[in-house]
Specification:
single chain; alpha/beta; Collagenase (Catalytic Domain); six-stranded mixed β-sheet; 5 helices; 11% strand; DUF3152; DUF3152 domain-containing protein
Length: 283
C-alpha cells in the first residue's frame, strides 16, 4: 500500500508538474495577448496618426475647380485722327502792268437776255499777251448780264453778245493800257479804275482779276459790280450815287472802290426782293 501510494503520489506530482507549465504558458500567452491588445490600442492610434487617415469606402468628394472669370477686354483704342492734308499753297495771281495795246475779239455770240427795252449788242475784247481767254471772258460777261438781279431781268434793256457789228465794246486791258484809253476821254484812272469811253467800257485787268480792297466779296462777285456799273452808264444812267444810309446796301452806281461811307458792299442794281437800290446823286 505504501508502495502504491508512493507510486500514486509520484504520478500525481508528475502530472502536477506537467499541468503547471502548461497553465503558466497559457497564462503567459493570455497576458501577452492582453498586453499586445493594449499595445495595439495605443500603438495603433499612434500608427494610424503617423500613417494618415484610413481609407474609407465612401466616394471621394469631387474637387471643384473655380474657373477664373474672363478679364474684361479693354475698350478699343480710338483710331488715330488723320491729320488733314495741308492745303496746297494758293497760286498768287500776278497782273502785268502793261501789255501789247492790241486786242483779241471773242469769237462768240449768244441769244439776247432780257424781255423788254432797247436791244444793245456788245463785243468782248481782251488785250493780247495777258493770261485770259477772250471767249471764256465773253461767256462770263454774258452770265453777269443775265443775272436775275441785273439790268436785263428788270426791263432796263436787252443785251446780246456778238462777234461783229456791235453797239459797244467791253475791253479788258492792263492798267497802263486802261489809263491810256480812259485818258482819251479826259478821265484819270491812275492804274486802278475802270471807265466808260465813247465806244464802250474799259475794264482794268487788275480790278477784274483781284477785285477791290473795299469789296467784301470775291473777285468773281466784284466783276458783277464792274459790268453792272459800266453798263449802267451805257443804258443812260450818267450820274454816280452815294450811300443811302449806314448798314444799307451800296448802289451799283456808287463808286464803291473809293469808299463805302457806312454802306455794305453790293454788286447788283436790285436787291433780292427786286427793288432798285438807289442813293443820293453825287456827280
Amino acid at each position: 500500500m505504501r508502495a502504491g501510494r508512493r507510486g500514486l503520489q509520484k504520478k500525481r506530482r508528475s502530472g502536477t508538474r506537467f499541468v503547471l507549465p502548461v497553465l503558466a504558458l497559457v497564462t503567459v500567452s493570455l497576458g501577452a495577448g492582453a498586453t499586445l491588445a493594449h499595445l495595439e490600442g495605443k500603438a495603433g492610434e499612434g500608427t494610424a496618426a503617423a500613417l494618415g487617415p484610413r481609407p474609407t469606402t465612401a466616394e471621394p468628394t469631387p474637387t471643384r475647380t473655380r474657373t477664373p472669370s474672363p478679364k474684361p477686354k479693354p475698350p478699343p483704342k480710338p483710331a488715330p485722327k488723320k491729320k488733314p492734308s495741308p492745303e496746297p499753297p494758293r497760286k498768287k495771281t500776278t497782273v502785268p502792268q502793261s501789255g501789247a495795246g492790241t486786242f483779241t475779239t471773242a469769237r462768240a455770240s449768244g441769244e439776247p437776255v432780257g424781255h423788254s427795252g432797247v436791244l444793245r449788242r456788245y463785243q468782248v475784247q481782251v488785250e493780247d499777251g495777258v493770261d485770259l481767254s477772250a471767249r471764256e471772258t465773253a461767256a462770263e460777261i454774258q452770265r453777269i448780264l443775265a443775272h436775275p438781279r441785273s439790268w436785263a431781268a428788270h426791263g432796263r434793256g436787252r443785251f446780246q453778245l456778238v462777234s461783229e457789228n456791235a453797239d459797244f465794246v467791253i475791253r479788258i486791258a492792263t492798267p497802263d493800257t486802261a489809263d491810256a484809253l480812259c485818258a482819251r476821254q479826259g478821265l484819270r484812272t491812275h492804274g486802278e479804275l475802270n471807265c466808260e469811253t465813247a465806244d464802250g467800257v474799259v475794264v482794268n485787268l487788275k480790278r477784274w482779276m483781284l477785285g477791290s480792297p473795299t469789296f467784301a466779296g470775291a473777285p468773281a462777285e466784284y466783276r458783277h459790280l464792274i459790268i453792272n456799273h459800266e453798263v449802267g452808264h451805257e443804258i443812260g444812267i450818267r450820274s454816280h450815287m452815294d450811300c443811302p444810309g449806314p448798314g444799307r446796301l451800296a448802289p451799283a452806281m456808287m463808286q464803291q472802290i473809293k469808299g463805302l461811307n457806312g454802306c455794305r458792299s453790293n454788286a447788283f442794281p436790285y436787291d433780292e426782293e427786286g427793288s432798285y437800290i438807289t442813293g443820293p446823286i453825287v456827280s
